Automatic annotation (TrEMBL):
Protein name, entry field: 16261_t:CDS:1
Superkingdom to which the source organism belongs: Eukaryota
Length: 42
């Protein structure tokens, strides 16, 4: 039974890390887009 848990844990950690990375990427794109639009509106 413990073997199954050992397998599940790293997978969930990996998924969490990937989600964090995707969130960061989205935030970066959002910031860049905001900067670009700021130039447009001026």
């Amino acid at each position: 039974m413990s073997e199954t848990i050992d397998l599940i844990e790293p997978v969930s950690q990996l998924g969490k890390r990937r989600t964090d990375t995707i969130k960061k990427d989205i935030l970066e794109c959002y910031k860049e887009e905001k900067e670009r639009r700021k130039d447009l509106f001026q």
